[in-house]
Design a protein that fits this description.
By secondary structure, the chain is of the alpha/beta class. The chain has a single domain, classed as 3-Layer(aba) Sandwich (Rossmann fold). The protein has an eight-stranded mixed sheet, with helices on both faces. The protein is globular.
């Protein structure tokens, strides 16, 4: 059963609560809803009370116009502030970017994992000029699935990774999220990471990256590692952007090691 928290602008943000233990808020990326975490959910809910968020405009969450990425930062902060104790926070892709910004104010976060946030650093976050027109044309023609596949292909997903995604039960949720994808692509393009803003952020942070992910994600992780006062880096060999799906057991182990283990012994493995 989905529950709700009210964000700063009055938007109702839905989440599913599962498991028992310390609070862990999970924030999915572009092109999906809270079901993104299904492959790792069984391994995590044995150790945590999971709060699986539907970001605004997805699943059972509301949406408020006009869209602004800062509202997503506020959504994550509202979710973290609503749960018992000082929460752990795990964000993937666009959800990692939202988590990073949510952690900057005085948000009660115990530790945080950022899994490949899309950011402009030494490698630009760009799509070919015609991508916007192609996506809009596919959606207008009533074929959002074609728009989704095109976006994954442009983003560098291999045929094998795309086949795995299409085989999952939440593929329809990905298709349903297509209308929100363009605004997020444009928000990433306009977002500028300013290291000086994070110079005093004390939240212990694990930066999780796939060994064969796209250059833009690795560049963003390296920039964050150089900028955040208390960060550590873990590279998952052989994995791309969706290691939670392609290597769920390894992913769960990394999450448990950082949140519940002696993470100081595991700094900079990569």
């Amino acid at each position: 059963m989905m529950e709700h928290v009210v964000s700063r602008d009055g938007t109702r943000i839905a989440y599913e609560r599962r498991g028992e233990g310390p609070s862990l808020v999970l924030v999915h990326g572009t092109g999906i809803d809270h079901t993104y975490w299904e492959p790792v959910q069984p391994g995590l809910e044995r150790h945590f009370t999971l709060y699986l968020v539907d970001r605004r405009g997805r699943g059972d969450s509301g949406d408020t116009a006009p869209y602004a990425i800062r509202r997503e930062f506020e959504d994550v902060a509202a979710m973290v502030e609503s749960v018992p104790g000082r929460a752990f926070l795990l964000g993937h892709s666009y959800g990692a970017l939202c988590s990073l910004e949510a952690a900057l104010p005085m948000t009660p976060i115990a530790k945080m994992i950022l899994n490949e946030p899309p950011m402009r650093t030494t490698v630009p976050v760009e799509y070919p000029a015609e991508v916007r027109e192609r996506l809009l044309a596919y959606v207008a023609a009533g074929d959002p699935e074609k728009a989704l596949v095109a976006l994954y292909e442009v983003g560098g997903s291999s045929p094998e990774e795309l086949a795995v995604l299409r085989s999952l039960s939440n593929w329809p949720a990905r298709v349903a999220a297509v209308p929100t994808m363009l605004r997020e692509i444009e928000s990433v393009r306009d977002y500028a990471f300013e290291p000086s803003r994070f110079a005093n952020m004390k939240t212990p942070t694990l930066l999780l990256v796939g060994g064969r992910t796209a250059a833009v994600y690795r560049a963003a992780i390296d920039e964050l590692h150089a900028s955040l006062p208390d960060s550590r880096l873990v590279v998952m060999p052989g994995q791309g952007h969706d290691a939670a799906i392609t290597a769920p057991e390894r992913y769960v182990n990394e999450v448990l090691r950082f949140f519940l283990g002696d993470s100081d012994k595991d700094r900079d493995r990569g």
